[in-house]
Amino acid sequence: MLVFLSAVSLGVGLKEISYSDIFAVLAGKNIDETLGAIIFDVRLPRLVAGIFCGAMLASAGVAMQALFRNPLADPSITGVSSGAALGAAVAVNFGVFAISVQISALVFGLLATFAIWRLGRINGRLSAFSMLLAGIAINAFCGALVGFIMYGVREAGVKGFVFWTLGSLENCSWGEILVASFFGVLSWLLLFLNSRGLNMLMLGSDNAYLSGASVKSLQRISICAAAVMAACAVAICGIIGFVGLVVPHVCRMLTSPDNRTLLPFSAVSGACLVVFSDIVSRLASPLDSVPIGVVTALLGAPFFLYLLRRGANA
Questions:
Q1: Which topology term describes how it sits in the membrane (predicted)?
Q2: Of 68, 83, 94, 221, which is least surrounded by CB within 10 A?
Q3: Helix-strand-coil percent breakdown of the chain, rounded to 5?
Q4: Where are the beta strands (DSSP E) in 120-263?
Q5: CA gap 267, 248 in Å, rounded
């Protein structure tokens, strides 16, 4: 499915490109310089960024759901999204200092996660309930600061900021993708190597400890890995909602709750969802593509309501 969607993504756009031309350009046959520039400089970075973003957000969702033992948990609990939005707002408002939106979003997202992690500790132990409350408070605080900052920003800056907060693959460069991929893939591998410990965490902290797991270490790894993966994705693609919530839950129903299987399957499925959403966004508005976050919200919101309804009837 991912290979098929990738081929469709490379062919969709203002200029339709046949699959034979796509394969020829990727194989190194210089058919047309214009086609080569479109594929290698525009569409391929967009595709790779979408695959990376979907995989990281879905994997971060798996980590959060295992840590909180709740299928409705998603990466936003760590505060990455709200912190990244604050960082982007700061970069937009103080652009005279040449602050990169991506770097600012990454730094502020990780700072928000660190604040929530520190506030969620009680007597030296991490409390899921306290961390959830801290996340609500930090998210609200960052949202208030974003509103205050953007109130005085130029109209053009507001438009760019709003588009970024809805998710976009428009301006992804190879340099940003390589840097984000380096840290994101390392975090994913760290999480995967501890996937058996994540299975123990789903039994609860006490049962995991009795099973021989290092609970504190696993909690730190889960939070840090999820925060870095989500922050790297948000930094290059903006805020794309529902991927970290919906994908792990669907994959868990299709495969098993075993994180050794769930993590890689969720990563590929998350990549498929974001690439598919990007294709829909470009087909819906070829001249000015719809933000990806709008498409994922339209797909994810009904499923979220279904989960709530199912939980109420359980």
A1: Multi-pass membrane protein
A2: 94
A3: 80, 0, 20
A4: 121-122, 125-126
A5: 9
Residues 6 or more apart from 236 whose CB is under 8 A from it? 49, 52, 53, 102, 172, 176, 177, 180
Task: Give, in order, the Cα–Cα distances in Å from 228 to each of 98, 157, 173, 182, 190.
Answer: 24, 27, 19, 11, 11
Backbone angles phi, psi at 122, to 5 degrees: -125, 120
Residue 122: helix, strand or coil by DSSP?
strand
Cα of first residue to Cα of last residue in the chain, in angstroms, is 33
User: What one-character DSSP code corresponds to residue 77?
Assistant: G
Determine the Cα–Cα distance for residues 119 and 173; give it in Å rounded to an integer: 36
Q: Where are the domains of the chain?
A: 2-313
Tell me if 197 sits within 8 A of 225, measured CB to CB: no
**The most confident of 72-81, 96-105, 185-194, 244-253, by mean pLDDT:** 185-194
Domain 2-313 has CATH 3.30.450.20: no
Given a cut of 90, whether residue 185 has pLDDT beyond it is yes
CA distance 302 to 290: 19
